[in-house]
Design a protein that fits this description.
The complex is a heterotrimer of chains A (397), B (362) and C (278). With 362 residues, chain B is an alpha+beta fold. Helix content of chain B is 24%, strand content 36%. In chain B, strands 6-7-8-3-9-10 form a six-stranded mixed sheet, sandwiched between helices. A five-stranded mixed β-barrel of chain B has the order 11-12-13-20-14. Chain B has a five-stranded antiparallel sheet with strand order 15-19-16-17-18, with no helix packed on it. Chain C is built from twelve helices and no strands. In chain C, helix 8 packs across helix 9 and helix 11 runs antiparallel to helix 12. The chains are: A mainly alpha (397), B alpha+beta (362), C mainly alpha (278).
Chain lengths: 397, 362, 278
């Protein structure tokens, strides 16, 4: 830069931006990166069984591993049993193939009694130890990287020959992503359809009434999502006001089951997200000069044609911006399905939470998070390309 | 030149490192002088002002102010008042607070601050409006506040960047005089930027005409008007007829110029033109005489192409010397009665009124 | 009053149905929020309507329960700390972005607003892993850091929007009148972008105050915030105390909204932009 003044300005600018940038880099970008890294990182086996790992890495993978590998394995199993450190590796291997926990537990318990040659005594303990395929699975687990978690998230699994479909009982994730997509899409369409007339009416009402209407949109917008979801939880329950009303009017003689259904998820999510669709649409409609419609009228277009040919296309950017926001937020929804949905209505977020807190399979949580991020990322990129002037703003999920 | 308050020495400015917005600028402004930088947009006049104010820095060269190098002094340490085109009054402060701001920055005590703010407001005749906000004032009043704010901290130099551009014609002319009077009263040095030649002629001690990043001429208004240094200045200041030709001979300070249609015109050579040079003849419409006995050594017959009524005069567009854009003014004093389109009339002008100038660089 | 134009029944029918549909949708938006009001005043043990009678016992319960009071305290501590840090850093960065004349500004803004478009659950587990790693899991500090990252984009974007209407000549004027850059920022820039800063600050507070997902992962019972405590309540034992808490949260949100509208109105009256709604 030739100008000293300009570079002085930029130094000042950089100094002002730096604190925030550091905060975001250290406490958001870095954690995010490590989380994504966890999706491919695989160190449980090599940490718990370092010597075994080393010999397995040198093994050609064709016949059974050498006796040395068996010896290290048994010795390190004994050590792990003493240290009670076998948990992580049991989880890791059992996740890759159900049943390995039992096999390994048996070997760990027996490790004290096993005598040389270890290969024979192990096969004597359980003939599966004589299967080279099992050892190849172990060899794959020695890390440092694995495709297991990402593949599993797509209902695939790594095998000796490459990639295969995961076992039927494990193939839950593609349907999960599909369900997440489906719920988000339905919610988005519903929000767009409901937002359009509301935004339009608010944009043509006299200022006083429009302000009142706007307040009715903004109050829920500022109210906590949890509060609103809780309200629906109360309203939709078996003893809730809707059932009470229906019973009182003798429209039904048994309370309807509304809570813990897909219906409940839809209605609560639409309620939470509708303001995000109304606000951008309203500002587009408010900013639209009436001249266009007047011009169309002067050119002889009847009302419905004016709407279809002029008004709708001109307000489409608002629909698109709002819908995008709604869809992006829907995809990551967690609390609302968790509270008012049934087991079949949970979305990707619930599984990420499950793998993080309950089954403590952080690799899997990270892999699902990575895919969810990718899904959102693709969406944002598409949005920036397709929607003119799209700015992501006003998110608070 | 010992009393120069500003001196530009070989100053150039380029934003992209390729195109020079200001090229090798060398000029001085004397203490107490009112100098106007005049030129079309993009001529470099505003950039020059911005460098003086410290909002831009020169790519090379030196700007001296009151004997010290100004190049890298930050704007807030220069002590130069600036009046902005859109006034740039602080909208969240009252008029009084706007004026007190520079005094606060200088650490002037409250009592003196108040006295000086009051005096400055009285000077621009806004004494009663100290508690208003800028948005509650008219454009003209805002302009006065901006003026008072730029003067209240007693800078040695005040820069004005098209300060009257946003005002209507009448107010503008009134403010021109007022600014001129304030300048005369305070004796402060003023550098004034405008693209309005009338404004420049009315107000300035000297005018610097900018074009293509260079000063084409720096001289008093009279000299700029009467003796433009080149064809650009001649055409930019006031109205001018332009005829292209070549100097055939020079004698006794009179050049004989052959025009495109072969006719010969006697003209006064401008600076730096000699025999054989291609020149542009510059002749003001008001110097063209109409009628058979009007006098003037250059006599032509011209056909009237168009008559345009202006009230106090009628403008004639004439075919003359191979072109069709020759303009003359017909006033009530001219003998010619009721000319009509298509008439062929005698016109003439004196050689001393017609300048043979170096043509504009392409 | 006689209508000057000929009556147009079809058009007015369309308009009437439009108003009716809008009214219904607005009712759908607002009604659920108000359902909790009568429930919170129930004298019964169950969250059912109609209530057997009215009492303030559940509010009493709320204000005498150590758990709810701790959660309220935590929410305010975290919310205020988040607001202060996010507003400070966000405003400075926005001004830096306004001042800077370099390429890649859009990219920096995109990076800084990334927390806003990242699915909240992803942010939550990333924070959970990272904060436990540095020993800030289950601490209010950890929660404040996480909430600051989540809410700082709102401050940044609202302040940037305010700065868009800020006349750069005012900075030049301030400099010509002798104000150094920091003084010019404090005396000229800050007062003029104050509505945007205030809106951003309010939104930062609201974001933290309402935030649940990150709190689910990071907070142990000692750091439970109001939403976290409510969530525990909904999941475990659904007593009308929840409704009372919800009402308090709604009233508080409405208060924040009202403050925001006030800021916007005042800014409009003064002809200063407060940035975009909300």
């Amino acid at each position: 830069m030739s100008s000293r003044l300009a570079s002085r300005r930029n130094v000042m600018a950089a100094a002002l931006i730096a604190p925030l940038f550091l905060l975001v880099a250290l406490s958001f970008l870095a954690p995010l990166a490590t989380t994504l890294y966890r999706a491919i990182e695989d160190s449980d086996f090599s940490l718990a069984l370092p010597k075994t790992s080393r010999s397995l890495q040198q093994w050609d993978g064709v016949a059974l591993p050498p006796e040395e590998a068996f010896r290290s394995f048994v010795e390190e199993l004994r050590q792990a049993q003493q240290d009670q450190a076998a948990g992580a590796i049991l989880n890791r291997l059992n996740f890759e193939e159900t049943g390995l926990r039992t096999l390994l537990l048996q070997a760990t318990r027996a490790s004290g009694r096993l005598a040389e040659p270890y290969r024979d005594s192990m096969i004597a303990l359980n003939p599966r130890w004589g299967d080279p395929a099992l050892w190849r699975l172990f060899k794959r687990a020695t890390g440092p990287f694995t495709s297991l978690f990402l593949l599993r998230s797509l209902d695939l699994k790594p095998t000796d020959q490459g990639v295969a479909k995961a076992a039927a009982q494990d193939a839950v994730f593609l349907p999960l992503f599909w369900r997440t997509f489906e719920i988000s899409l339905v919610v988005t369409i519903l929000c767009a359809l409901l937002a359009y007339p509301v935004a339009y009416t608010l944009s043509i009402l006299p200022q006083g009434w429009a302000n009142v209407g706007m307040m009715l949109v903004l109050i829920p917008f500022w109210t906590s999502i949890l509060v609103r979801t809780t309200a629906w939880f109360i309203i939709l329950q078996r003893e809730g006001p809707i059932n009470a009303l229906l019973m009182a009017m003798t429209l039904v003689d048994q309370p309807l089951t509304m809570i813990f259904t897909r219906f409940a998820v839809y209605i609560a999510m639409v309620h939470v997200l509708l303001p995000f669709a109304i606000l951008p649409l309203y500002s587009v409609m408010k900013g639209l000069k009436p001249d266009y419609m007047r011009a169309a009228a002067s050119l002889g277009a009847p009302g419905w044609k004016r709407f279809l040919r002029i008004y709708l296309p001109l307000t489409m950017p608002g629909v698109a911006a709002g819908s995008l926001m709604v869809f992006m937020l829907s995809v990551g929804f967690y609390i609302t399905p968790a509270l008012v949905g049934g087991p079949g209505d949970q979305m990707v977020s619930s599984f990420i939470a499950f793998f993080t807190n309950v089954s403590v399979n952080w690799g899997m949580a990270a892999a699902l998070a990575t895919l969810l991020m990718a899904m959102t990322g693709v969406l944002v990129v598409v949005a920036r390309l397709v929607v003119p002037g799209f700015r992501s703003g006003g998110v608070k999920a | 030149m010992s009393d120069a308050i500003i001196r530009f020495e070989g100053v150039t400015k380029s934003y992209d490192g390729v195109t020079q917005v200001v090229k090798a600028l060398d000029f001085s402004v004397l203490r107490g002088e009112f100098v106007t930088l005049l030129g079309p947009s993009g001529s470099g006049k505003t950039t020059t002002l911005m460098m003086l104010a410290g909002f831009e820095d020169p790519s090379s060269g030196a700007i001296m102010f009151d004997g010290r190098l100004l190049n890298h002094v930050p704007a807030h340490q220069r002590g130069i008042g600036v009046v902005f085109q859109n006034y740039a009054l602080f909208p969240h402060m009252t008029v009084g607070a706007n004026l007190a701001f520079p005094l606060e920055m200088q650490g002037v005590a409250r009592a003196e601050r108040e006295a000086r703010v009051r005096a400055a407001l009285d000077m621009v005749k806004l004494g009663a409006l100290a508690d208003r906000r800028p948005s509650q004032l008219s454009g003209g009043q805002q302009q006065r506040v901006a003026l008072a704010r730029a003067l209240v901290f007693r800078p040695k130099l005040v820069l004005m960047d098209e300060p009257l551009g946003a005002l209507d014609k009448q107010l503008r002319e009134h403010m021109q005089l007022e600014i001129k009077h304030i300048h005369e009263t305070l004796g402060v040095t003023v550098v004034y930027v405008t693209h309005d030649q009338g404004e420049a002629l009315t107000m300035s001690d000297r005018i610097a005409v900018f074009h293509n990043g260079r000063i084409q001429q720096l001289a008093s208004p009279g000299e700029i008007y009467e003796r433009p240094a080149n064809a650009f200045v001649a055409s930019f200041i006031g109205e001018n007829n332009r005829l292209d030709g070549t100097i055939e001979s020079m004698a006794d300070g009179v050049a004989r110029v052959r025009l495109a249609d072969g006719s010969i015109v006697a003209a006064t050579p401008g600076p730096g033109v000699g025999s054989g040079a291609r020149v542009t003849l510059a002749l003001r419409p008001e110097k063209v005489r109409i009628g058979p006995d009007a006098g003037g050594e250059n006599r032509f017959e011209a056909r009237i192409e168009e008559l345009i009524y202006y009230g106090d005069h009628t403008r004639l567009r004439l075919a003359l010397g191979g072109g069709e854009d020759f303009t003359a003014r017909l006033t009530f004093k001219d003998a010619l009665a009721r000319p009509e389109r298509g008439d062929v009339i005698p016109v003439s002008w004196r050689g001393v009124d017609c300048l043979a100038l170096a043509p504009e660089e392409a | 009053m006689a209508a000057p134009a000929a009556p147009r029944p079809r058009r007015s029918l369309i308009e009437a149905s439009l108003y009716a549909v809008t009214a219904l949708i607005l009712f759908f938006l607002v009604a659920p929020i108000f359902v909790v009001f009568p429930l919170s005043l129930s004298s019964g043990e169950l969250l059912v309507l109609p209530t057997p009678g009215y009492s303030l016992r559940w509010y009493e319960e709320f204000f005498t329960s150590n758990r709810w009071l701790l959660a309220t305290w935590n929410s305010f501590v975290v919310g205020l700390a988040t607001m202060i840090v996010a507003t400070l850093l966000g405003t400075l960065a926005a001004f830096g972005l306004y001042l800077g004349q370099f390429r890649g500004k859009a990219l920096i803004i995109a990076i800084l607003s990334l927390p806003m478009v990242t699915p909240i659950i992803v942010t939550a587990i990333a924070m959970y892993f990272a904060l436990s790693l540095v020993g800030l899991g289950s601490t209010l500090t950890g929660l404040i850091i996480a909430h600051t990252v989540l809410s700082v984009p709102f401050v940044l974007l609202t302040v940037l929007a305010s700065l868009q209407t800020f006349d750069p000549n005012l900075l030049r004027a301030a400099a010509s009148l002798g104000a150094s850059p920091p003084v010019a920022f404090r005396r000229v820039v800050l007062p003029l972008i104050a509505p945007g800063v205030a809106t951003g600050a309010l939104f930062a507070f609201a974001t933290s105050f309402d935030e649940l997902v990150v709190a689910l992962f990071i907070a142990s019972p000692g750091q439970f915030t109001l939403p976290r405590q409510m969530f525990a309540g909904v999941r475990e034992f659904l007593s009308p105390t929840i409704a009372a808490a919800a009402v308090l949260l709604i009233v508080f949100s409405a208060l924040l909204l009202a403050i925001n509208e006030m800021i916007r109105k005042r800014a409009q009256a003064r002809g200063i932009s407060s940035g975009p709604t909300p």
